[in-house]
Every structure is written in C-alpha cells, then in structure tokens.
Amino acid sequence: MLEPLWQRVPAFLMARRNLSRARTRTGLAVLAVVIGVVAISSLGMFGVAFKSAQLSTIGEIGSDLHVYPTGEKDPAMLTEQDIRTIDRLAGDAELVPFKRTSRRPADGGSSMVTVYGVEDPAALYDVADGSIPGNWRRGALVGQTFAERHDIEPGNKLELQRSTFRDGQHRWVTETYRVQAVLQDEGQAVIARPNDAVVLPIEQFEAEGYAQVVVRTGGAQEANETAMAIRGAFNDRRKVVGVFERAEVSEQIDEAFAQINLFLIGIGGISLVVAGVSITNVMLMSVIERRQEIGVLRAVGYHKMDVLRIMLAEAALLGLAGALLGTLFSFGVGALINGALLGDPLAFDAAALRYAAIGFGFGVGASVVGGLYPAWKAANAEPVEALRG
User: Fold this and answer.
1) Cβ-proximal residues to 167 (8 Å cutoff; 6+ apart), any chain
2) Cα 66 from chain centroid (whole Å)
3) How far, in Å, CA of 194 to CA of 199, rounded?
4) Are 173 and 164 within 8 A, CB to CB?
C-alpha cells in the first residue's frame, strides 16, 4: 500500500532497501533511538505528573491571603477592630476569620487535637459526609483523618476535654458535642486545615479575638494589591501583622518544578547523544562495507548530492522508526506513572504531550545529525578508489 509513496521519494526507497539488508544492525540503531526518546519523554511526563501530584497534596494555589498577628502585636490576636479594618481594605473580598485552640479527646490518650472556631465553615470546607446546618450554633464538624482515627461518623457523640484552673488547681472539663458532618481532607497549604482537627461554632470559644483571617480575593493582582494595603495600614515602625500571599508560593513552586524538569530532560538528552553516536557508528560501518556499491553509483552518474541524500535518508528513517516506537513506549510508561502518582493512567495534559513531541523531535534530529559525517564521507569518496574497495 505504501509502495507508490516510496516510489515518489527514490532516495528513501533506496535507503529503506539498504537498511533492510542489515536487519540486526538496523534494529540495534533503532533501539538506541527508542531508549533515548523514552528517556526524554518519560522523564518529562514524570516531572509533569509529579508536579500535579504535589500541587494536589499541597492544596490548590489560589488568590487567598492569610493575615495573622506577629509576635510584636499587642494584644497577640486580631481584634474586632482589626477585622473591620481588613474588611474595609479588602473591598468586596470575602473575609473568613477564625479562632484556634487545642482540646483533648476524652476517648483516651494524652494527645491534643486542634480545634477551630469558624462562623461560616461552608466558606472554608467541603463536606464528605453529613451536612452543616444553616444556622450552625451547636454540634461539631470533624476532619476525615480525625473521623477515621476515632471511628466517628455524623450523629455520633464527641467528647472533648479542655483545661481550666478551678480553686487553684488544674482540671479537665469534659464537653460533649453531636457530630454534624465529616469534612473532606485538604492539602497541606490549606489554611485552617481540617484533616485531623475539629471545627466548632465560634460561640463555643470563650477567648476574644481571632487567630487568623482568610481574605478571598478575585485574583492574584487583587490579592497583591490588598496585601500591600493591609501591610501599609498595620505595619508602620513594627511588623505587627503578617500577610501570606499564596500566589507567591505558586510562582516559586512553578520555578522549582521547571528546574527539576529541565534537569530530568538533560539526563534523557544524554541518552539521545549516545543514540546519535550509535547511529554515526552504524552509518560509518555501512559506508565502509558499501564502498564498492557507492563507487558503482558514482561511476554510473550519481552525483555527490545524490549519495548524500541516500545516506541522510537512511539516518532519517532510523530516527523516524526509533522516534515513533519510542513515543509509543513513552505513553505506556507515562500511563504507569500517571496511574501511580495521579490515580488516572490517562491523565495526560498539554505539558505531557509537549514532552512527547520534544522526545520525538530530538530522536529524529539526533539521528540526522549523527548521519551527517558518514553521509559526507560517502559522498566524497573517489569512484575509482571506491571500486578498488
């Protein structure tokens, strides 16, 4: 079926016939290209999948601001007046202030659990099981990790103990809550991470003031402007309020993963250099073995450029075959990597496809470059000397 197409490109037709006469040598040269292409493409795909998996673990990097009091603030908390100031500076952005303390589960052990006090938990968390009442004033919400560790589900009772001093003595006071919902686990960068924590109505906290406030802006530019406004309003001579911009973390992570990918592709590139050297060796051996054949071609009227085209066509066919097979193998390896890191073997995004294209292009290019010197040597062979062998 492809024979008419081959007839249209006589140089490639002769190159294909020449390669088919030395199948073992041709197969080894193609294998070298396959290894190089798989190295570049698969390492690139690994970098992309690793980045996606890490960002999923860290948490979605958005345009949220995280405002908190520093050690120089007196009192060491965000007051109602501070919240009103931040609200004025943030404009239309949503504010989610919350309190934080520690309690001890009453089901044994001395380990403490983080307890958040939030007025509107639906603004911060997603529910995995159960539901958050519309007018939430009683009950508790627990993270998935905490629920699994203590075998808790919505409707169960949760007993927490808080430390207090009474009559000059330290005592533990047990308080009972009905679990309303189990919250989905979140990434590590999520503020007020609920995974191994308990969330209570803010009215359950006796202490005044807030530990932190989340400012949810409409974009990175708005977040940056709001952060600058908050710093300017609170931090005069001393830094009494810290503002954490998550967009900065996103940029740093992107730069770090770009460097990792560049390093991995560099390692894969070494494999392709080796493949190019292998093709050069194969082509040189072919030129030596076919000196008389090349001499006959020159004697019957083939020009130097004709011989050059035939030899380069051989190198290009080796690279094309190796690059095609290497790209197919790369998608197989990429599917294994995606399955292991992302849980979906077919989670190939545009970046992963770009690395496959880069691997293919490098495979063909390295083969052609590797065939340049043997092609030049064959084209410049003197017909008489070549016929003598």
Assistant:
1) none
2) 24
3) 7
4) yes
What global pTM score does this model have? 0.57
Residue closest to 275 by CA, chosen among 24, 34, 25, 40: 34
| Three-class DSSP category at 32 | helix
pLDDT 10s digits, 281-331 = 777 777 777 777 777 777 777 788 888 888 888 888 888 998 899 899 999
User: In this structure, what token pair is assigned to residue 291?
Assistant: 């000196």
Q: Distance between CA 370 and CA 373 in Å, rounded?
A: 7
Q: What is the pLDDT of residues 82-141, one digit of tens each?
A: 999 999 999 888 898 999 998 888 876 568 899 999 888 888 888 999 888 888 888 899
User: Tokens 């992570």 appear where?
Assistant: 253
Q: Provide DSSP, 303-351.
A: -HHHHHHHHHHHHHHHHHHHHHHHHHHHHHHHHHHHHHHTS-TT---HH
Local structure of 284: helix, strand or coil: helix
- Residues 128, 110: Cα–Cα separation, whole Å: 28
User: What are the CA-CA distances from residue 251 to residues 130, 216, 224, 290, 315 (Å)?
Assistant: 36, 18, 13, 57, 42
Instruction: For CA atoms 208, 211, 216, 217, give the dihedral sign.
Output: positive
Tell me how far apart the alpha carbons of residues 39 and 21 are, in angstroms, rounded to a whole number: 29
Tell me if the bond preceding 75 is cis, omega within 30° of 0: yes
Residues 174 and 163: their CA atoms lie apart, in Å, by: 9
Structure tokens at 259: 């460097």
